[in-house]
């Protein structure tokens, strides 16, 4: 909070603060509705009392009310309705403390009104929606978890299943057919699915019993695991996660129960993706087991990503794991591991910032060999967004030019600042290339009459002029500029810019 407001508020007594809140609530409906939900949630948590759903219904209705006046868009870029999706997300987040405490009834007191409002307004939103539909899977997962928690009766589950089915029927006509599929399955099946009790007791070794898990089965298992964790049923969680092949969740729970050796054994036997290694390593570090966390993360860097297993590697790959290990190892004063992780992060991302971080961490005497290895990886990659910037930093102008020349010239954009920087850097050493390249960048802007970008075309032409000066062919440049002025004489804005080029460019 800026301007010292937070400190000044702390100096006031409760009566003054209450008066300020009441004053604001009296003149701001949105603030009043927000405050009502916040107070309702706090009362329920502090008093362990049933939550009143009415403030949450009113708040959800108010946030979605603008959808009522929505008209069909005439163009794809029409602004449409301005629904405060951040506030809607914040409203949903108020259910999290209750989910974490295993309080399904109070969580549903928040989630159900929001789901009902979204289902009601969705027919007006569907035609123009770009991101609002993302609330359906979020609500679906949270409701599925809540309905499985202790205290939610069989009758309440049956009633909720009917409500969810009704809402789903309403939204399915407008492109959201599976909006509440997981929650409906959770409310309908609960914990009574055949064979599930055997799994909980450790007698069943595979879940689902068929041995194959479709999307709905997988999402329902996720909801059940979340509910078991919230209710503290650790052994049931471990048995279900193992039977379902959820080895990451299984290992993380073992680590949280300080069963570190078991967690590591599960990880090394079953982890196939760096993301799993990252999640367990973070847990191990949080549990104050840094050596095990770093060893696991280092091992995880050797795992192939899904893209590497099934097709061409993506540009992100193991970057998240490598970046985490790099930062955590620095904090723990493990420089060798930090340096290794920094190199791995760059080799996955090929990002300028990761290259510079690797250089900063690497000892000066080791940098030449490390740099050569990283640059080779950069040059061998089929795509690297920051390749030219890195090569320019290393004064590898010839390599940068070769990279550009290998690339389909139709992919070159005159708006790319890296290309402009390269042309400037190449001007003295490679003036002929600079002339050709700069003119090629300027030409489409002028010929296609992109009047809003004429100044950019002139900057490219100035580079061509400077390169002509390097080659001693200024007369040739003057002739070319006169030709451009004549060719574009009817484009008054462009012609004025060409005629006004500095004296160092024109005679």
Provide structural commentary.
- This protein has 507 residues and is mainly alpha-helical.
- The chain folds into three domains: 1-70 and 79-190; 304-384, no CATH class; 397-499.
- Helices cover 68% and strands 0% of the residues.
- The chain contains 29 helices and no strands.
- The chain has helices spanning 5-10, 14-27, 29-47, 54-64, 85-93, 96-100, 104-125, 135-147, 154-172, 181-189, 196-200, 215-231, 234-243, 247-256, 260-270, 274-286, 290-300, 306-310, 319-331, 335-349, 352-361, 367-380, 387-393, 397-406, 417-426, 431-447, 454-471, 474-487, 492-499.
- Helix 4 (54-64) runs parallel beside helix 7.
- The longest helix has 22 residues, at 104-125.
List keywords for this structure.
0% strand, 507 residues, mainly alpha
Helix and strand topology:
Layout: H1 5-10, H2 14-27, H3 29-47, H4 54-64, H5 85-93, H6 96-100, H7 104-125, H8 135-147, H9 154-172, H10 181-189, H11 196-200, H12 215-231, H13 234-243, H14 247-256, H15 260-270, H16 274-286, H17 290-300, H18 306-310, H19 319-331, H20 335-349, H21 352-361, H22 367-380, H23 387-393, H24 397-406, H25 417-426, H26 431-447, H27 454-471, H28 474-487, H29 492-499
Helix pairs in contact: 2-3, 3-4, 4-5, 4-7, 7-8, 7-9, 8-10, 8-12, 9-10, 10-12, 12-13, 13-14, 14-15, 14-16, 16-17, 17-19, 19-20, 20-21, 23-24, 25-26, 26-27, 28-29
